[in-house]
User: What shape does this take?
Amino acid sequence: AYRGAVLRAADETGLARDVFPTDCPYALDQLRDPDWMPE
Assistant: This one.
């Protein structure tokens, strides 16, 4: 799912794919926590 999101984000923003991290930088538990926000 993350790889697909990177491809879509690169397409939508016009940025190169290698600008985005190769792996999602967040843990699944963080992403599922409604009170957590990345800095």
Notes: Residues 6 and 12 are 10 Å apart (CA to CA). DSSP finds two helices and no strands in the chain.
